Every structure is written in structure tokens, then in C-alpha cells.
Amino acid sequence: MAPVRNGRVIFNAYPEGKLANSTLLLNRSQPAEYPIPGETTVYDESAQIDTATVALNGGFLVKTLVLSIDPFLRNRMRDPQAKDPSRRGNSQGYKLGEPIDGFGVGVIVRSEVPDLPEGKHVYGFIRFPAFQEYTIFPPSAQLRIIEKHPDLQWSVYVGAAGMPGQTAYGGWKEHAGAKAGEVLFVTTGAGPVGSFVIQLAKQAGLKVIASAGTEEKLAFMKSIGADVVFNYKTTDTRAVLEKEGPVDIYWDNVGGDILDVTLENTAIYARILVRATAYYALFAVLTVIPQLCGAMSGYNTGYVPVKNLNMAYARSLSLYGVAVARLAPIYAERFYDEVPAKLASGEIKYTEEKSYGLDKVGDVLLAVQKGTNKAKAVIIVAEE
Amino acid sequence: MAPVRNGRVIFNAYPEGKLANSTLLLNRSQPAEYPIPGETTVYDESAQIDTATVALNGGFLVKTLVLSIDPFLRNRMRDPQAKDPSRRGNSQGYKLGEPIDGFGVGVIVRSEVPDLPEGKHVYGFIRFPAFQEYTIFPPSAQLRIIEKHPDLQWSVYVGAAGMPGQTAYGGWKEHAGAKAGEVLFVTTGAGPVGSFVIQLAKQAGLKVIASAGTEEKLAFMKSIGADVVFNYKTTDTRAVLEKEGPVDIYWDNVGGDILDVTLENTAIYARILVRATAYYALFAVLTVIPQLCGAMSGYNTGYVPVKNLNMAYARSLSLYGVAVARLAPIYAERFYDEVPAKLASGEIKYTEEKSYGLDKVGDVLLAVQKGTNKAKAVIIVAEE
């Protein structure tokens, strides 16, 4: 077989000195410089691969099918040498001149690993697949073999049936302690995690307050059962919570000021599940755990301090950090047994926004950072 | 019987403008103006009471035996009209011209309540007994009848066998999730709560790191089993935790910067139990819950914001607010069944510093605020 194109998305430059203001970026850890298509990342078609003959060195060759564009990718675009600690990255960030990576699904096209034969589909947590059409993995690569529900597309497996779904499912099961009649508040409730949480809460008999930033998102949240929806850009969160709260469970997808406002409006014994800022910080911090220690404070400088933590004892609150990297393995079997079937049947609803081709990655990265995407952003790299 | 003196400690003036610097007050919510004996509070002997004839109006008359001087009393000395929100009090603060109140033990000398007969001893949570020699309570007063262990003195029942002990006991049972071999860090480890926590942790097989501010306190912490003790005034907390940690359980008695430093040095799945600032804030906030809402933010202005809460998801932390007002009732039976006997046998060790007479209250209030007391401060008001 002749060599074929192996298109790649190369990390070309740290996004610096560019744009500034965005409501999406409020309360978030990253500096507000957007990744610029063609500049921060570059789509490159110069590489080729002969899938029939390329040396696998004991590993396996995967053809990428779908890739997930998640907000946290931006957090891996930080310069480890940056003078400003709030902009500084760590050793696990993207390398200039190399393809970026993230969550995705692919199909094995050739393999020297007996447990991972040709034709199997794999889902990767982090560093897989690299954003390229074909990737050779070492035998030690931690990938999960997944089988597709006949009524779902592979794209769902990086969204509601992937990391975002696992975040909602694992965090809820582990920490929510939900009781019927309680009040949930969730921010970015139209996102892949937030919308999943809304539905888990409604199934548990809770009253759901949910916020988002566009009328379209409010309508979607209503359609999946949220009782009270509001646009956080035009409606004061404090006023809503004072009227509709107090809040028994806060699923925090944004952190910062909204967390402080919510802490003021908690019920006794409320549970606070923090993620969001997480969404950015998780991978920056998780991946650096082995090297940890003194340097850690540098990673934190960019975060908005929490002022109302004294509410914790005033109200006997419990606050939990939701880290999908640790929850996903614990709940994986239950999740895959239960969730894809419910997504296929429509019992759990989801949305996604597909773009086709690796050449679209730069645009979608920017849209996700600006919040102009309308649903979970997915790149369809190839049909099978 | 002739009337007898009913000495009282009157709240005379808000402590303001007496600015002062104190390491004790770092990270704490109150302004650093100390209560001045004879000025903030005044001991008054002008009142008399005829214990045999005074009208009880269906209530009962208590002779005060011991009173507890706790740090949080200072937080009730705030002016509800103060312009600076960080100094402002709420409606539950002490009233100018009236006796202060707090925790104490007394004996019923006359009663019109069948369940609370003469001769029984009562322990009061808050607003009992007022700091006076005799107090008439309404029948609805929420007091607990307690019986003294023959080998303990009543003073212990406002310390290790009272609110501080209940804080440690309830918080530990409810939230610590301790496993042998884990590492505990506790601040103000020589205090009545901290020293109790150290011993609970050692009994559970943990390694204990404990901090305090004097050599005498370090020696005491060693004597009750702490493995690593250090003076936070002369030793860098971060350096100790980097060497001896990471921390699996942090019992936070101080909040603020030390909480942030500890968050940087937590193990995965660590539990953070926050109180301390609590110690001040609890009553300010708990008591105002019914009136709550918009004004709440004003109470918080004085607190040090927490910068490293992003560690919550990075490390899958759980953070719990320890509120003795809610934990004490839940654990009361177990606590009184178990703890006084262990205190009497020496299985749990405690310290206390007694002062004799209500005229000493002003001096002891100041000492507790300055941190110059050497152990749990107790006022012996009367022998039986």
C-alpha cells in the first residue's frame, strides 16, 4: 500500500499578547488570550504514513475517528518559561512543533498487542490520540476498548458517553448525596457536564436552578427539565438564589465570584461540588503531581480567591473536588453499562456540534474558548 | 434569707480604636482591638438577689459555678452599627449595659420546672449562664442536666468535657475518615480542641504534625503523642509540611494563610476540617441565620480569602465545616458516655488554667485574645 497523508494539528506558538475580555473567561484560570487559528495551532499535511509497513515496535496503530475539543486544552498551551506565574505552564503542556493531544476515539488498523487486535475501537483519556490522522501507540498505552451502541455515533463517546458524562456521573454518585425535594444549582447548565447533572438531579426529584449565557441554552435547559433557568449575563445570580434557594447542592462549573455568591445562599449541610476552574486546572495539576511541591503555588496565582469559605462551618457545608481522572476508573463499568443505553433511548438527552476535518480544529478551539459553540464540540476526523 | 450579692460582668463599651498587633490574630476575623478590662467589660457588684423569694415565673434559679472564656466571645463584642463591615456585629452580639454570656455550669438552687429540680447541675450551650452569680432562666431554656464524674471537677465540663471536647469529638467522628498510617496536621495543637484531636489521631494510628506558639505548648503536644511539633512563629509551616507531609487530614484551627499552605501540601483524597476562623464566625453567623440573606456578605469582609481551593479538584479533596452547635446534639450521648471517664482515667489528657472570681473575667478575656493564657481558660465563680 502506498503511503497516505497523515494530517496533524501542530502546536505552533503560545497564545500571548492577543485578545483580552470575555465573559466566558471570567473566574477562570487562564489568561484571556485566545488561541488563534493558523498561528497558535497550524494544520499540517506534510507528513505521510504507510499504514501497512510502518514499524510498530510492539505497539499498535490507530486511525483517529473523532476528537473532543474541551476547554481545558487551552490550559496546556501555557509557556513553562513565562515570567508571569499566572500564565506559566508546566512540563505537561503542549510542545511547540508537535501535535496537540486530547480525548478521542479511534480504530486499531494494525497491532502487535494481542489484547488490542485490529478492528477494535479504543477511547483515550489523556495524550490520546494525538491530533493526527494516524498514531502509533506503545504497548503500554492506557486505552479502553469500547463497543458502540448501535443507535449512537462515535462522537457521543467523547461527550455524554465520554469524559464529560463521566464527570457528571461520577461526581454525582460520589458526592451529591441528593434527597428528593432538595434544590440544585448548576452553572453552565447547557454544557455537556451541566446538562447531564440537570437530568440526574431531576431523576432524583430535585428542584433545579441552572444558568447559562444564551437564550438558546436556557431553552435547552428547560427542555431537559430545569425548573428555573436564567442568563447569568443579564440576571443577577444572587437575586435568583435569594428567591429560589437556599441551595442544597451546588455543582460549580465556573468557580470564582459565582462560588462566593452561592456560598452565601447555601442551606445547612449543603454540598458543594467544585470542578470548572477544575476543568482547566485539573490536567495542569494532576499531571504534575510527581514533580509537585514548592513550585505548586505558581500554578495557582491565576485563580480567583474564595472569600466566603467561612460559610463552610457556619452552614456545616461539605465541599468536594470532582476530578474525573480519579472518578472515571471507579465508575467506569457502571457508567458504560448504564449510560450509553440511556443516551440511545433518549432517557438522557445530550447535544453536540460536529465539525469535519482536522483543518477545523483551530477554529473550534477558538469557538470553545469564546463560548460561541452551541453544544459539545467534536471533530469528526474520519468515517470508518 | 437576706439578699446576697449578685456580681455581674457588664458589657460596657465596644473595643475600638485600641489597635494592636498580635500573631494570634493573624488570619482571624476580628479586628485586632483587644477588650480592655474595666473598660470593655466592667465587674459590677451593685445588684443583689434574694434567692429564697425572687419570683421565678415558672422558671428556675441557677447559681453559677464555672464559666468558660472562649476566643469567640470577642466576636460578640462588635458594634452592629459599625461603619466598617469587617468590624460590624449582628443582632446577637452583647448588649451594652447588660451582662455578657457564654458557656458554663451551674447548680439549680430553686425551681418551678418539675424536670429541673433543685440540686441538679446544668450545662449551657450559648447565652447561659450569663456572667453573673445567679441567673433566673425561663422554663424553655435549653440546658443539659449533667452529672459529674467523681474524679473530675466541674471546670472540665466547659473544656475537654464541654464545647471544645465536643468540637473535637464530633468533628473527628463525622468527617475525619482516619486510616492508620495517615498523616494529620493540626494547628493550635495545644488548645482544648487541638490537643483532643491529637489524641484521637494517635489512638487511630496516625502520624501527627502539630503547631503552636510557645515552647511550653510544644512540650505539651509532644507529651500527648504528637510526632512532629513546631513553633509556627519561628518555623516555616510550608517547610515542615513538605518534609513531613503530604497531609491526609488537616484540622484547621486558624484558617487563612496556613490553610492555603496546607492545601498545597495535601495528599490525594485528603480531608480538610475547617473550624478556627469558625471559632469566631460560628456564633456570629449561626445566630443570624433566620435574618440572613443580603447582609451576609458584610460579615465576611474580615476573612482572609482562600487562594488554593483549586487543590480541591486537583487532589480530590473533601472539605468539611465543623460546627459544634450542630455536631454536639448528634454525638451528645456517646460523648458523655465515653469522654468524661477517659478524662478521669487519664486516657485522654487535658490542661486548664483556672482563675477565681467574676472580677477576673476582664483580665482573662484579654489574655485569651492575646494568647498569653497557657491552657483552656476557666473562671471559677463559686464552689458548691
TrEMBL record, chains A, B:
UniProt-annotated stretches for the region Disordered: 77-96
Gene Ontology molecular function: any one: oxidoreductase activity, acting on the CH-CH group of donors, NAD or NADP as acceptor
Record Pfam families: ADH_N_2, ADH_zinc_N
Positions with biased composition (Basic and acidic residues): 77-87
InterPro entries: ADH-like_C, ADH_N_2, ER, GroES-like_sf, MDR_fam, NAD(P)-bd_dom_sf
Domain of life of the source: Eukaryota
Residues annotated as domain Enoyl reductase (ER): 38-379
Keywords for the protein's UniProt record, in alphabetical order: Oxidoreductase
Name assigned to this protein: NAD(P)-binding protein
